[in-house]
Amino acid sequence: MESLQSAWFSPTGSKLRRMFYLVTPNETSFQYPEDVPEYEKEASPVFMTFVLVEAFVSLLFGHGKVRISDGLTSISAGILSRIPLIFLRSGFLNMYQWIYNNYHIVKLEWNSPYTWILTLLVVDFSYYWFHRLAHETSILWSAHQVHHSSEDYNFSTATRQSILQVYSGWAFYTPMALFVPISIYMVHEQLNLLYQFWIHTEYIRSLGPLEHILNTPSHHRVHHGRNPYCIDKNYGGSLIIWDKLFGTFQAEKEEVIFGLVSPINTFEPFTVQVCYWKHLWENWRQGRSLLNVLLRGPGWVPGQDPNECHIPEVEHPARKYTTEVSNLCSIYVLLHFTAVTYFFLTILSVNHLMPQESVLAVLVFIIYSLSCFGNIFDQRSYATYMEILRCGSALCISQLANFQLLSEFYNEMIVKMIPWFYGISALLWILSLVFGGSKQQLKHQKTA
Ligand SMILES: [Zn+2]
Ligand SMILES: [Zn+2]
């Protein structure tokens, strides 16, 4: 019993409990914002473990619920969405603090359980409205559609986030600065986000009576569905009560087919991020008013009643976007993606100690790498040349004198392996180009 209790409160136990909001006000209330732990950052290894375990189970039993191409595109979007926060994280929090210091209406006790519970509810309520408007206005949908663009539904889908979403959400939380201390807001904003990770799975079917109150994998599957009965339903974050209260709740019925009503058919992470802007631009070019283009819903057609918006029926089984990339090539990309993720996680934890130009150089390399991986999966004709350039550049940079400065922050053995890793990779691509010819054709084959 005692060992169970010590495991429950151990650092690993606490990290795991936070994913499910299983924490007490006592252990997660802080007086000052600088004392609030970075739960999101601490959760990265837990995210990775969940993703790997689910992928392993899917592979072992041949369920096909996790695809390397789609999963890596999702995690790429997650990495891209974190990059601006390295430089701009404190902007919104500074504004929140300033409003609270100068304009708060009531001063809630930071260490009261009532403040803690009230904040949990208000953060979730604000998230509901932010999320609802993110679906019902095109300007916010342009960012949020990234999260819905995966045609799979697994833990990696949870990481598929927009670069821009963080800049649109703050307005919905700002009114809280009139009464909630910033430290308690920071705790719940993070816990709410962590909770939303584990509900992205097909492996948990029903949670029994908890389905009445909590947002669950079943409810969130409906939210990610493109079946007509799933559209604009279940916006909740950690609770489902707001949907029931405001008429947007829908229980899971027939098999849900995931993704966008108009699939984007790409694994390239930048196209995933910006494709909807192209659509809005085209709408505007057709002579529609800019306000209508930005503020109406994604299904808006001039002169048509929004309630009569036609959502096409889905096909069973689902036809997903896929390309003919060999298993060997997928493993190659997986290896290189692991290296890039390692570089990124190191930057996240030590960027404040590194020279800013080194941080920038590594970030440029990471961003370019993610685009290369997407183009390989999309089988673009120029992907081979992009990859030769990427591996060749990494090899050259690792030979520069000031690279040693960067290497202080990375594992010594890994740093020694870098020239070999990228040198051999570049050579393999050159050989495939010389002996295989430019076989890589643009293939956009959809199969069942
Ligand atoms: Zn959504
Ligand atoms: Zn989701």
Structure, explained:
The protein has 448 residues and is mostly helical. The chain folds into two domains: 22-246, no CATH class; 327-437, no CATH class. Helices cover 60% and strands 1% of the residues. It has helices spanning 2-9, 11-18, 39-42, 44-60, 68-88, 90-103, 113-136, 138-148, 155-159, 165-173, 182-198, 217-224, 241-246, 269-285, 290-295, 327-350, 356-378, 383-398, 403-407, 412-436, and strands at residues 320-321, 446-447. α16 (327-350) packs antiparallel against α17 and α18 (383-398) runs antiparallel to α20 (412-436). The longest helix has 25 residues, at 412-436. The protein binds zinc ion (ZN) (2 copies). One zinc ion is lined by residues 147, 200, 220, 224.
Q: What's this entry about, in short?
A:
This protein is mostly helical. The chain has helices at residues 2-9, 11-18, 39-42, 44-60, 68-88, 90-103, 113-136, 138-148, 155-159, 165-173, 182-198, 217-224, 241-246, 269-285, 290-295, 327-350, 356-378, 383-398, 403-407, 412-436; strands spanning 320-321, 446-447.
